[in-house]
Amino acid sequence: MAKYGEPIANKGKDKWDLSEFKGRDSVDLLARMIYSEAEGEEYVGKQGVAHVAKNRKADGRFGETYEEVLLAESQFEGMTTKRAREPDLNSQAWEESLSIASNMSKQHNPIGNRLYFLPNKPKSSKAKDILQLGNHWFFNY
Hints:
Elements: H1 26-38, H2 43-59, H3 66-70, H4 82-85, H5 92-102, E1 116-118, E2 128-133, E3 136-140
Antiparallel strand pairs: 1-3, 2-3
């Protein structure tokens, strides 16, 4: 396998066809998701985004592997972007994303058991346990 973060061409036939990511190492996938969803966030914000994926994997309803969780349709929009396919490997944001993904078992969990995040405060009255970290809002239903 090539190094983490190598450029990947979009092979998909639609926005959520993420087949080019299938079979990749979970560290690479997780780092790409963190980077694409939280590139401009502080380290703790990147940890929060990463822990949403970890919490979903532990929950079991979203998939049993990081690949299943991260590539599920309509779940992590950042994975559909050029940022996920071509991260800036020389940036601090990529370095932090890769560090978090490589060391998930040692990462601080700043969001508890929350399973969702949005760039805006959730408007649904069903959203509970709402927590803001940087520009993201973490919550459960």
